[in-house]
Amino acid sequence: MPTTVAPRAKAPAPSRTYSRWAALVVLCAGTLMTILDGNIVTVAMPAIQSDLGFSAPGLAWVVNAYLIPFGGLLLLAGRLGDLVGGRRMFATGLAVFTAASVLAGTAGGQGTLIAARALQGVGGAMTAAVVLGMLVALFPEPREQARAIAVFSAVGAAGGALGTFLGGALTQAVGWHWIFLINLPIGVAAWVAALRVLAPDRSTGAGRGPETGDGSKSDSGPDNGAGAGRGKGADFPGAALITGALMLTVYVIVGAGDRDPGGTALLAALALALFAAFTVRQARAARPLLRLRLFRSRELTGANAVQVLMIATMYGFQYIGALYLQRVLGYSELATGTAFLPAPVAIGLLMLGLSARVVGRFGGYRVLLAGLALITAGMALLGRAPADGSYVGDVLPPLLLLSLGFAAAMPALTGLAMSGVQDEDAGLASGLFNTTQVVGGSLGLAALTTLAAARTGHLVDGGSELVPATADGYRLAFRVATVIAVLALALAATALRPRHD
After folding, report:
1. What is the mean pLDDT of residues 182-186?
2. Secondary structure of 363-394 in the HEC alphabet?
3. CB 339 within 8 A of CB 390
4. 352: helix, coil or strand?
5. pTM here?
6. By three-state DSSP, how is residue 211 classified?
7. Nearest CA to 63 among 39, 44, 99, 43?
8. Separation of CA 194 from chain center
């Protein structure tokens, strides 16, 4: 359910050849496709597992293979977008994503599907990294910009839950392959529309000299634009380090139950070493992906830490909640998708109609705490879900609480994150905020699914029946997610407390 935050950008010169609102539709459509595909596979998981023979922990990689390159490449893709142009990067990302979707839809084995999902993540990062900068540039007037961002945020926030419904409908009607193949006509149409509607690219980053890790200019001389097409200044080693660190971290969590403790500790140490190398690289690189001085902002650092915990909780709910409906309550794919429909409806309506007003009246800090409290309450209710539960009594109430809490917390958290950021750092801060959403989702999903699978396997090995054991495993995951939500609430209450209080 994650949404995104827009960086500030300079407005382009007005053009008679395209409509700004038509451009907004194209940007929303392209982004919605990538967001939907991050979640559309959730309901199709049992069908994919049965068809391709995934293990329970390995099945999570169908989601994580998309999320990890998506999150790891956002900062690099944003930098390349500055160099080669937003429209070019957006259109190329759509093409990569669409081609990868066809590969995933025709996959006949585990390796092919996971590789295709990873390629989808690359295309999704290329698309998402430049969209918000283009949107803000299209709508420089504050009132119109607020409307445009509200529309875009609602599309993004509701898109994740809407993907669950579409995944269920397509899987039951024509098979799981079509959750990917449906992207072919949509992607081609969006690509053609992008080339026709979006404003032509103008160089935005080639004329500046490279910056050091602390944001100062280097003495290497100006970039005259000759290197833009070659990606001059893009920190490929930094992107490789952070993507490798994230991938290895998730691998350690997913496979922890299948290897000896010594091997797990060794891999975890290697992941930490990659994170450390990335930090050193960012401090020394001429054009770092992430200027480390951003972390001097208490609001930005605290908000990103809170977001990792909050999104980990929400992703766990989406994934494991769908499996609970199917494997415990016996819902079909279509029924499961329909059961999730109240979430995108509630989130979209609340974000468009109430969030800005509520934050304006009560302040972002108070609204954030209230939203996190609702998320905690919703997860606590799910932690009681029995093997013989019902949708109305055991799923719908926490679903509504989680939706209401997320719709309140996300805009408030976004505002708090950006409140302590200088204008020249707004783009990087936005990229960091978007990246930690994906990191939180990936790590939360890996940890919670691993815990649930381990608990279920232990009970089945001890003689328990499969359905009660599965329900018990999911309850454990929901309870751990509740603890994560409590930690997010406690961290927000302390780290983001207004200075004047």
Report:
1. 88
2. CHHHHHHHHHHHHHHHHHHHCCCCCCCCHHHH
3. no
4. helix
5. 0.74
6. strand
7. 39
8. 23
For the chain, what is the radius of gyration of the CA atoms?
A: 22
For residue 165, what are its two tokens? 């419904």
Selection from 54, 26, 59 nearest residue 42 by Cα: 59
Token representation of residue 446: 């890996």
Q: Which two tokens stand for residue 479?
A: 């309870």
Question: Token pair for residue 340?
Answer: 């999730």
Write the DSSP symbol of residue 234: -
Q: How far, in Å, are 11, 120, 239, 451, 470 from residue 235 at the CA level?
A: 26, 21, 6, 36, 45
Q: Which own/partner contact pairs does 456-463 have at CB distance under 8 Å and 24+ positions apart?
A: 456/56, 457/56
Residue 217, strand partner residues: 211
Nearest to 117 by CA among 53, 45, 63: 63
d(C-alpha 424, C-alpha 431), whole Å:
13
- Calpha distance 228→232 (Å, rounded): 6
* 91-119 tens-digit pLDDT: 999 999 999 999 999 998 898 999 999 99
Identify any residues that bridge with 211 across adjacent strands, giving them in sequence order: 217
